[in-house]
C-alpha cells in the first residue's frame, strides 16, 4: 500500500501538483488471510503558496480538475473511511489542510457493474447487429443475382450498400464540392482545440508553464479563437438550406413545412439519441481511473435529468449549463434556426424583390443583438464559462447571438443559386484584393487580439469585436466559397474539393458528436499527469482524429445511414398522403 501511495513529487512549484499514485496496484491488493483489500483515495491539499499569481476568485469550469489544490493519493485498507484517512493525513501537522470525501475513494467492489438497463441496451445492440448482418447478407445476395430489393427497408441496415454510398464520390459541380473541405478542416480544428482544452483541465506536470508561457504565446489564440469553427458549420447550414430550397422550388416541388421539419429531426436525432443512450448506460462502465468519475459522471447525471430537453433541442434555454453532451449546444442552435427558416424562405420565394431588404435587415439585427449582449454583460474579447456565469445561456449557445453566420450563409445560398448559370467576370486585381482582404480578416479574427494578457482592452473594443467578429468570419467564408464556385479559387478550390474531403464530410456529423466523448474518456482514464507541450497535442490530435474517423464510420453505418433510408421512406409516404389530400380538395373545389 505504501508503494501504491503518492510520494512528494518533483516540480511542485512548476505546477506538478497532482501525484495520482498507482491506482491499479492499489485496487488489486488483496490479503485473504487478514481479509484486507486496497482502497484508493485521492485527497486534496490546500497550499496557499501555490495560489501566488493566480486569481483565487476565478470560477472554474464545471468539469475541470484544476483548482490550485494538490492531489495526493493514498492507498489504505478498505475498512477505513474517508474521515479516517483525512484525520490521519492531517495528524502529521496542524498546519496541513487535507480534505477528502467518500466519493473520492474507490475499491475494486465500488467499480461500476452492469445493471438491468445496461443489459437491455446490450440486448438491443445484439439485436441491431443481427438485423445489420441479415440485411447485409440479403443485400449481397441481391447484388450477385442482380435483383432489386423487395422494399428499401429490407436493405436499410446493409453495410454493403451503405458503405458504397459512403465512399461514393459525386463529381457534379452542383453539389458545391469546396464546402466539403471547409467542413472537414473546421472539424479538425475543433478536435485539435478540444484536445488542448481538455488537457488544460487535467492534472499536469507543468501547469505553471501552461499558464505563464503557452497561454501568453500568440499560437495559443489558434485554440482560444476556435469557436468560429462552429460558426463555419452554421454558415454552411444556412447556405445549404437556401440553396436546396431554391433548387426544389425551381423543380416545382411543393414546400411542405411539417415534412421539412420532420426530415431534419429524423436526420439528426437517431445518431444523437444513440449517444445519449450510451451516456445513460454503458459509458461509465467502459473506463476507470483516479479521476474517471470526476471527468465523466456529470455526463450520465445530466443525461438522466435532462435527456428530454436534449431530444427536443431546447436545452440551450432549459438548464443550459447542464447539457447532456458538451458539444450539443450547436445542434440546438442549428435545429432552432432550421425550424424558423420557413419564415424567411417562403417570403423570399413569393416576393423575390424583398430579398435584399429582408436579408439586410436580418444581418443587421444579428449584428446588433450580440453587440448589445456584449455591452450589457460586459463580455471581454475572449470569455468562457470560467469568467461569466451562465455563459451558454447568456451568449455562447443562443440563437440570437450565434445566428449571424447562419443568416449570411442564407444570403450566399441565394446568390449562388441566382448566379449558378451565369458567367461572373471579376477583374483580376479586384479578385486578388478580395483574397488579400479575406486572408487578413481571418488572420485578425484568430490572432489579432494578441497580446491579450499584456494589454487591457477597452470595453468599446470588446463590444465591437464580440458583436462583429463572427459575421466578419462568415463574410470571409462567403468570398472563399463564391470564388471557388465561379472559377476564382485556383489552388484553394482544388484543395478544398479533393475527393477525400467529400468522404470525410459525410461522417463529420458523427465525428462532431462523438469526438468530445472520446476526449473525455481519454482524460478520465489518466493514470499520470500529462505534459503540456505542443508535440504532445499534435500526437493526441492525430490519434483522436484517426480513432474518431473509424468510430464515426461505424456510427454512420449503424445509425445515420439506416435511419436516413427510413427517413426517406417515411417522408415519401407522408408526401404521397399529402398529395392525395390536395387532389381531393381540388376535386371538391371543382365540383362546387
Per-chain topology:
Elements: E1 18-19, H1 23-27, E2 30-31, E3 36-45, E4 70-77, H2 82-90, E5 98-99, E6 105-107, H3 116-145, H4 159-167, H5 178-200, H6 207-212, H7 220-224, H8 228-250, H9 257-280, H10 292-311, H11 329-340, H12 342-350, H13 355-376, H14 391-396, H15 399-402, H16 404-419, H17 428-447, H18 459-485, H19 491-496, H20 499-506, H21 508-524, H22 534-591
Written description of the protein model:
With 592 residues, this protein is mostly helical. The protein has 3 domains: 12-107, no CATH class; 116-159; 169-578, no CATH class. It is 61% helix and 5% strand. The chain has 22 helices and 6 strands. Strands 1, 2, 3, 4, 5 and 6 form a 6-stranded mixed β-sheet that branches. Strand 2 (30-31) and strand 3 (36-45) form a beta hairpin. Helix 5 crosses helix 22 (534-591), helix 9 (257-280) packs antiparallel against helix 11 (329-340) and helix 13 packs antiparallel against helix 18. The termini are far apart.
